[in-house]
């Protein structure tokens, strides 16, 4: 597999087996995770988007939210986030920089009340990847490139993952969520992954 030329070299066998941290990501550990359910296998990738406040290019509030340190008085739109305990495995910012909050062998709290193909509690068997952005704005070329890199690493590390395993938050929680939104180019992502094989 010729995917993840930038990231794959930095995920050693030891890292895969012990902590599943991407060596090339900035590690920002979150307290918001749990052990995966017994006998669950990773076979789903859920793509999200996030921006705090909405439309901001600053990632500091996103980091604070996922690390449980968000000052909800800092912006009026943060009021609803008081006491919220959420995380993702990975965030890719507008420039394509990768941040990791939860090791892949643990369950990040990204999907919430969710189901996929008859199974509930998607956090138990999925990996959550956030793209910095909003439901209705286009994502950057650097984000697609790095998303392809990260997914390539995951597909080479977890054998049950394939192209059919990649969905949006909107697919696993359609009544609640719209992200990554109508501007997300699924065809572009699939071409990137297919060309890398």
Features:
alpha/beta; 6-stranded mixed β-sheet; two-stranded antiparallel ribbon; disordered N terminus
Structural account:
- The protein is an alpha/beta fold.
- The protein contains 5 helices and 10 strands, in the order αβββαββββββαβαα.
- The protein has helices at 13-18, 60-66, 141-157, 169-172, 186-196; strands at residues 26-27, 33-35, 44-50, 90-92, 98-100, 106-108, 115-116, 119-120, 126-132, 166-168.
- The strands form 3 sheets. It has a 6-stranded mixed beta sheet. Strands 2-6 form a two-stranded antiparallel sheet.
- The longest helix is centred in the C-terminal third of the chain and has 17 residues, at 141-157.
- Mean pLDDT is 91; it is low at 1-18.
Topology:
Elements: H1 13-18, E1 26-27, E2 33-35, E3 44-50, H2 60-66, E4 90-92, E5 98-100, E6 106-108, E7 115-116, E8 119-120, E9 126-132, H3 141-157, E10 166-168, H4 169-172, H5 186-196
Biggest β-sheet description: 6 strands, mixed
Strand content: 15-25%
How are strands sequenced across the largest beta sheet? 1-5-4-9-3-10
Judging from the principal axes of the Cα atoms, what is the shape? globular
């Amino acid at each position: 597999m010729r995917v993840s030329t930038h990231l794959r070299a930095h995920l050693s066998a030891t890292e895969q087996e012990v902590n599943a941290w991407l060596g090339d990501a900035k590690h920002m550990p979150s307290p918001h995770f749990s052990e995966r359910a017994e006998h669950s296998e990773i076979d789903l990738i859920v793509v999200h988007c996030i921006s705090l406040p909405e439309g901001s290019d600053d990632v500091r509030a996103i980091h604070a939210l996922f690390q449980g340190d968000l000052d909800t008085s800092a912006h009026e739109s943060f009021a609803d986030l008081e006491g919220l305990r959420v995380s993702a495995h990975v965030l890719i910012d507008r420039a394509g920089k990768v941040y990791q909050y939860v090791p892949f062998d643990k369950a990040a709290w990204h999907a919430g009340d969710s189901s996929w193909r008859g199974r509930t509690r998607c956090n138990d068997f999925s990996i959550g990847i956030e793209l910095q952005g909003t439901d209705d704005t286009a994502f950057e070329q650097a984000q697609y490139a790095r998303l392809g890199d990260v997914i390539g690493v995951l597909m080479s590390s977890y054998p049950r993952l394939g192209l059919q395993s990649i969905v949006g938050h909107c697919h696993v929680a359609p009544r609640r969520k719209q992200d990554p939104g109508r501007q997300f180019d699924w065809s572009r992502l699939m071409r990137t992954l297919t060309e890398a094989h």
